[in-house]
Amino acid sequence: MTAHTPDEIERLVREFLATAAEEGDPEPERDEDLFQSGLMDSLFALTLVTWTESTFGIDADLDDLDLTAFATVAKITDFVAAKQGEAASA
């Protein structure tokens, strides 16, 4: 597994989120709540979880499926970085 830096993780997350955005929508701020902004709903959040697992080679456990961990770009980045750290130390 290749560990990504937080900057790389954030860039990839932003690229993925852009695929769901409507044309002309502004890019979300790092700490903007994606659910409140309307960019993400629970169905898209599950798509995002699946994407993070496949893109970053991590496993999201049932305990990880608290959607607040996916509410902002910063939280998604932190989640992926933490999971990569767990995998590296295992």
Distance from first to last alpha carbon: 12 Å
Number of helices: 3
Give Rg in angstroms. 13 Å
The biggest beta sheet reads: none
Helix content: 40-55%
Using the alpha-carbon principal axes, give the shape.
globular
Poorly predicted parts: none
Draw up the topology in text.
Layout: H1 6-20, H2 42-56, H3 73-89
Helix pairs in contact: 1-3
Structure description:
- By secondary structure, the protein is mainly alpha-helical.
- The protein has 3 helices and no strands.
- Helix 1 crosses helix 3.
- It is globular and about 40 Å long.
Keywords summarizing the entry:
90 residues; mainly alpha
Concise overview:
The protein is built from 3 helices and no strands.
